[in-house]
Amino acid sequence: MSRRRIKLIVAFTVAAITAFSFHAVSAAGPLKVYILAGQSNMQGSAHQSTFSAMRDDPAAAELLDVILDQNGDPVVCDNAWIAYRTGGRDGETVRQGKVEIGYGFDDQRIGPEYGFGIFIDQAIDEPVLIIKTAWGGKSLAVDFRPPGAGPYQPSANEKERGNVPEVESVGHYYREMIRFVQSTLRDTEGLTKLVPTYDASQGYELAGFVWFQGWNDMCNRHHIDQYTENMIHFIRDVRQEFDTPTLPFIVGILGVYGTDPDSRKFDKGLPVSDFRKAQFAAVEQYDQKVAARYRGNVVAVDSGPYYELGLSDIYWKRRLTGNWKQRVNQGQMTPEQFQAECDRYGFGDGELTAQEQRTWDRCASNAEYHYLGSGKTFIRFGNALAEAMLQLEKQRPV
């Protein structure tokens, strides 16, 4: 059975739209395996209820036509599957099945894997498997620390306060990530059950790796200072672990506050720009610091252009005015002081307008550091990751 023809955003411009026909649901070659890893924003907070708001933006509306089927329901991929390991309050969990809604924080949410999987699936003939590992609140300096980075060297402040990480915790999630990928790929029977089109005689091809993480390192100056070197070690070590020296590798750049965080008037104390520079530097310096066989095929994909700054303004208006109202009620702030703060930030009388409330209700489903739980953000970023990955694969040495 062939799939219906759809529009697929391709090339590397938002406006470039090319017609692709769905490939037949049969194995045309080795199973294409993509690894996605990171922390909470790789897990994904975007609720499917926010998808419809994409119609309001002409630049995003065409993407909505791709991710919804003819009945207006979110697409379930025909020839792309996912095995997802994560952890939370309920402990470690593994979910697997076709790429669809539900591989984010819960069964109603998505992370970058949804858009990435849909667009990769549409662009290639081979069956696709995404192996995703993501745990919230984890750092590269400690939790995902790669072997090549050596033992963690605590800061003077950590030593003074006695909160030096336990030796066993250093690199724990790096090891768990590698273990889950390896165990998934070694389980031929499990692969066949998960991916019905999987042909064991043709095997699989490790086709690419996407890393999307950073908030916890960004909140720690000691971690920022070592992030560039740690990321370089991480890329090289992953390639060595899987014996794939030219594995296409994408570093997803932290984009909370957009591409120019210093221009924002909220949360000015966070060193987001410094951290972004450390991430970009890892990609720029990578080839200079690794052996020749591990060089090339590493790119940065910035999530900043997809961050909804207008929605962020509403978030901060709700958050700050809510706090001030509470302080007024508790007698810690006078009504005059409340209004003065509103005037300082341009918040009017402190109440959301009808349009602001409507925008918030339709577009947001989580906090700012989780990209406001915006489907528009996660779908567009997933598409950008897929485009970059497809380009890297074209450039990969044979």
Automatic annotation (TrEMBL):
Region forming the signal peptide: 1-27
Domain Sialate O-acetylesterase: 31-257
Top-level taxon: Bacteria
Record flagged with keyword Cell inner membrane: no
A Pfam family per the record: SASA
UniProt keywords, alphabetically: Hydrolase, Signal
Protein name: Sialate O-acetylesterase domain-containing protein
Provenance organism: Stieleria magnilauensis
